[in-house]
Structures are given as structure tokens and as C-alpha cells.
Input
Amino acid sequence: MSMRINENYDIYKTDYAEEMKAEQKKAGEIGKETNEAKASGKTSAPAAEYISSEKSGEKPGGLYRIGKDENGNRKLYFEDPKKPAEKCTASTDKVDKEIEKLKEKKKQLEQEIKAASGDEEKVRKLEKKLAQVESELSQKDNDTYRRQHTSFTK
Output
């Protein structure tokens, strides 16, 4: 059994040039409407426009920055330029002392290992302690650790 579908496929053919002309005509009509609205002073929607402080003749009201609130959501913060600036000092003294102590302990353990060269068991224990001190020193003797453990005072 065979079926034959009688359909006119000519309706699906489109002429690209005709479509483009129709779109241009629509765009021209929309452009005329907006020009007429501007001339009459009526606009359909408010337009946001950037006006620099130089053009407006006013000084900027403040500084804005994007930060995170207590829930971790993005938030816009206003920094008032009239507010007096705070002065802070950073100190890495505690971290530096801690690193110095570790370096001294390392030197001391190295000297003890040299002195106890005859006793293998004592040497093993001292080398184990030395390895622990070296690993702790490698973790702490870098800029990242210093930055994380810097103390700030006003």
C-alpha cells in the first residue's frame, strides 16, 4: 500500500533578500518612533547613562567596592572619602622569633648528632627529631606563612 501526500512546498521557500528588506523596514519604523519620542520629550523607559565627574562638574561622592557579606554573598560597599584614614602597622616579629628558634634547634641537633657518632640508637633518635624540625621549618620559613600569621595594630 502506498500513500501520497499532497502538499504544496512552495510556502516553505523564502527569499533572503525579501526578509532582509522587511527587517530593515521594521527597524526604520522603530527608529522613527524613538526619534519622535525623544523630540517630544517622552521616553518609554528610563535610560541609564554614565556621566563622568569632569562633564558633570561635580566631585565624586565616594568610592565603591565589591565585597562579601557575612553569608558569603556579593555586596557593594561604599567607602566615604571624608572618613579619616586609619593607619595600621604589620608585624611579623612573632613568626620571625619562631623561625629563629627552629633554626637554633636544628643547629643544636646537628651538633648533638656529630657528638654522639658512636651510639647508633641515640643518633637515630636525634636524626628523627632533626627531620621533624626540618619539616616544620620548611613549612614555616616562607612568605605565605608569614603573611598568614602577621599581626596588625592600629
In short: The helical segments are 16-40, 53-56, 93-115, 120-140, 143-148.
